[in-house]
Amino acid sequence: MEPTIDARQQGTSGLPDFVLRHFDRQSDDYDHLQLYRILQSGIRQSALPAGLKLPPTREMARSLGIARNTVVHVYEQLALEGYVQAGVGRGTYVAQLGLRPAEPATRAARRVLLSRRGEDLVEHAGAARLQWGAFAPGVPEVRLFPAQVWNRLQRGLWRRAAPEQLTYATGAGDAGLRQAIAEYLQGTRGVACTSEQVVITSGTQQSLLLVAQLLADPGDSVWLEDPGYWGARSMFRAMGLKLLPVGVDAEGLAPTRQQLRRPPRLMFLSPSHQYPTGALMSQRRRRQLLDYAAAQGVWVVEDDYDSEFRYGTRPLPALQGLDEQGRVIYLGTFSKTLFPSLRVAYLVLPPDLVDRFARALNELFREGQTLQQAVLARFLAEGHYASHIRRMRAVYGARHDALIHAIRQQFGDALPVIGGDAGLHLVLGLPRGVDDHAVAHDAQRAGVATRPLSMYYVRPSAAESGLLLGYGAVREEEIGGSFARLAEVLRAHL
């Protein structure tokens, strides 16, 4: 701990009194560390004023009862850091630092630490503190990940890793992974692409940042689903874009005639499983929006975050597969299908954008994880990814059914279940007037994680009341008991 030092006169020995008062010969600290901290603190707090001559090293050592080499080392370190100035035959003097004693920051001073943009970002932050357990939305079951298979592949690649795989990444990502992703998307999602159109990123948020920075300027407008993904909203706001909320109906994004008259620069959609309502965009609406985007020069950003998990029906092909004019930017991620901390996502871009996005990615982020990308490439190429998806689709389907059963046991048909046929969450509708923020707060105190539906709206006037319930990270046998605790909280608010 730094001593609190008042300005003192030099002692009769030439040694400042405060050094004698604060140097403890019985301390467990090393002598050089203790002396260094005392002198540094004195200089920073102006107790040792600029221009003060320090005692010669021999005199300082004798007065404190320590080795002279210890004092020499401390003086040299202070000179190296600019606290003192020393010269042969001249002695050692306290340097002029221009410092003032530290004063406690006032409330107003603390508030100006962030820019207006930073304050706005923090104030509207939507990231949840709890990322595990019942009923945290959007969290997959990581305990069933085939870690042994992954570790085997990883060990094999580490044994023959090339230097290029351990340095900064260049280009659009590991070539093998880009090829594996392209083949997977062609076969399962109807995406029309080659491996050259795939750019690997460190998560969907980084993909969104690149889109916002490279395809829009501050002040440009972006259509957002309302309700919609808070992460896209936060990223576009932070990049200075004008947020234009567009309502969602049973067929997906539903712009009004007035909104259609003023085309945006970007259009952000989750057509295969609208987040958070679960709406599936119809083919008619898809065709209408693609034709509009082509005619008006709008970039369509398609977020296909968890379409692998659909129960009872096959996943609808991606919007990108219908795009004939090169207007769709397709976003995918492995966070929901494998595990979030892997931090691997990807963009599928029109061919003329790929090189520009890859160069911007390398310039801004100096990407890495090349070896991890190679492991993932092998994981996909050898069929382990497809096997894991099949297994988890069955697991999540059973958990989905168990949660709906628990809801019906507690409330019958009194509370509607919205968007409950796909993904890792469903929405439990609440009566108008129920404060879903208060319900979520009380549920957390009861040990149950959930999120209020109203927080996903840009327009408070349009907000519906409800709860997002994620079932991905809770075992089937634990769902009934966990929902029973939530039901007790709900009854206090209904």
From TrEMBL:
UniProt keyword terms in alphabetical order: Aminotransferase, DNA-binding, Pyridoxal phosphate, Transcription, Transcription regulation, Transferase
GO MF, one example: transaminase activity
PROSITE patterns: HTH_GNTR
UniProt domain HTH gntR-type: residue ranges: 29-97
Entry keyword annotation includes Cell division: no
Domain of life according to the entry: Bacteria
Pfam families cross-referenced by the UniProt entry: Aminotran_1_2 (PF00155), GntR (PF00392)
SMART domains in the record: HTH_GNTR
Keyword NAD: no
Family statement drawn from the similarity comment of this UniProt entry: In the C-terminal section; belongs to the class-I pyridoxal-phosphate-dependent aminotransferase family.
Name the UniProt record assigns to this protein: GntR family transcriptional regulator/MocR family aminotransferase
UniProt organism field: Variovorax soli
